[in-house]
Input
Amino acid sequence: MKISPKAKTLIIRYITIAGVITLYIVVMNLIFGGSCLIKNLLHIPCPFCGMTRAHISALSLDFVTAFRYHPLFFLGIPFIIVMVAEENFTGKLKKITNIAVTGTGVLFLVVYIIRLILGDPFLFN
Output
């Protein structure tokens, strides 16, 4: 099976992004004891706080805890993949993707505001 140069480029890009994210999490944990730069520097949670813990719980098949850590954890990885692959989309697919990405971003902000108002204990741990 032969892989096209475009597919090789995408694979390398995804592996690089995964490596950078992993390195970032490891370094932030070693320096600050946590992986969220915003929370460590500003002492307030960010809209994505809890995503790492949620994905770790989901990998352990503990979806209830994953949902408690961040109710939108299931959108995190598809969101990143679409953001990376978006530049290869054209026409109608690109417009639909832009709307979906914008909608997902707004949804993350709305959930973040609701969690702040409710004083979500998983957000502040």
